[in-house]
Amino acid sequence: MLKRLKLVPFMSDPIDWHRRIQPGHQTLWNSVRELIKLRKSHLALKRNETNFFYFHPSIDENFGGRVFAFCRTADKPLGNSGQIVVIANTSHINYQSFELPWFWNSNTNVLEIAPPAHSTATNFTARDGWASFSLAPFQVRVFSVI
Q1: Tens-place pLDDT, residues 17-56
Q2: How many whole angstroms separate alpha carbon 37 and alpha carbon 44?
């Protein structure tokens, strides 16, 4: 004889949408909403071409810098408009000024998507083939190149 199993919901804490109005939660909600909107609407994110163009020189060392960058290229060479650039710091190190190679013209419009809500400035400048910006611990910065 077969015994019936009782199905138990696996979530003991269902989503309480009212929590999004708590301090700080609204900022996270808005950032995620912007990233979802970008994912659904941007051509480069509808395709699979990805080019990892930067790894910190000491990324493979035990206590090395854990910064890397990649571009969703939309099947175009690096440096074209219509691309998405992601820069990630996966360490506890706070970089007030970090530089990496930048393949896009300095006169190209760069728009930061869902910029982080930190009390410190999140600068970004690009010129002469290099970008300079701040990068907080465990921060990911996403840019759309227009």
Answers
A1: 777 788 778 877 887 888 888 889 888 998 999 999 999 9
A2: 13
Q: Model confidence at 102, in pLDDT bands (50, 70, 90)? A: very high
* Cβ atoms 116, 27 nearer than 8 A: no
Measured between alpha carbons, how far is 65 from 73 in angstroms, rounded to an integer?
25
Superfamily (CATH H level) for 24-145: Golgi alpha-mannosidase II (2.60.40.1180)
* Residue 66, φ and ψ in degrees, nearest 5: -110, 55
- For 7, residues 6+ apart whose C-beta sits below 8 A from its C-beta are none
Q: Which two tokens stand for residue 73?
A: 């290229």
Closest CA to 134 of 99, 86, 106: 99
Q: From the CB of residue 51, how many other CB atoms can be counted at a distance below 10 Å?
A: 15
